[in-house]
Q: What sequence folds into this?
């Protein structure tokens, strides 16, 4: 099955987990585009650049596959750095071609923040995955510290940080985060990863019977 499926949504809503599982279930390639921006931010920091003020275009153009495999891309400073470089039009332009080439030949499940609105506006199917900021903060915190970890002060600070990033992503002038008009909304506050996958697969199979 050659399909292009766009999965968009804010940070820690579960879009990456859904996209990866959906791709495996449908035997399609998967691309986490957020990882591209994280890798750009990390490479800039390693080069002594500040993602919040320095131009990341050359770093984006020089990005290598191995840069996406680092184990230090999902930490708070890279969260902030990725959000900053994502506001730079030259960086987005440098990564746009890479994203489109990835899916064009054999189809793919691609997750990010502007896949259904900018990267693949004509995708065969679009999902917009979201959850409340508090739920997303808890997921991100436990991802970093363990499934049973809970620190109310840290969670409060992380919730505020996620809300600030949501505003920044939604208000940026280039490719802002928003739900595509034809996207299927998936709210994951009360759904675990298995339930979200089952729901999405049912929609795929309804629209594209095997």
A:
């Amino acid at each position: 099955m050659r399909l292009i499926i766009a999965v968009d949504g804010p940070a820690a809503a579960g879009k990456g987990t859904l996209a990866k599982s959906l791709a495996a279930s449908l035997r399609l390639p998967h691309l986490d585009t957020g990882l591209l921006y994280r890798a750009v931010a990390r490479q800039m920091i390693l080069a002594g650049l500040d993602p919040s003020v320095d131009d990341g275009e050359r770093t984006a153009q020089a990005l290598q596959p191995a840069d996406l495999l680092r184990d230090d891309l999902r930490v708070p400073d890279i969260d902030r750095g990725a959000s900053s470089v994502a506001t730079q039009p030259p960086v987005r332009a440098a990564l746009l071609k890479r994203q489109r080439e990835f899916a064009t030949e054999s189809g793919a499940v691609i997750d990010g923040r502007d896949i259904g609105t900018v990267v693949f506006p004509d995708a065969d199917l679009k999902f917009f995955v979201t959850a409340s900021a508090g739920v997303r903060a808890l997921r991100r915190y436990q991802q970093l510290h363990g499934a049973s970890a809970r620190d109310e002060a840290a969670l409060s600070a992380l919730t505020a940080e996620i809300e600030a990033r949501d505003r920044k992503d939604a208000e940026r002038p280039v490719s802002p985060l928003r739900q595509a008009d034809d996207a299927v909304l998936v709210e994951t506050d009360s759904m675990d990863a298995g339930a979200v996958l089952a729901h999405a697969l049912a929609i795929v199979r309804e629209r594209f019977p095997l």
In short: Strands lie at 4-8, 30-32, 108-112, 125-130, 184-187. The chain is about 50% helix and 10% strand. The radius of gyration is 17 Å. The first strand starts at residue 4 and ends at 8.
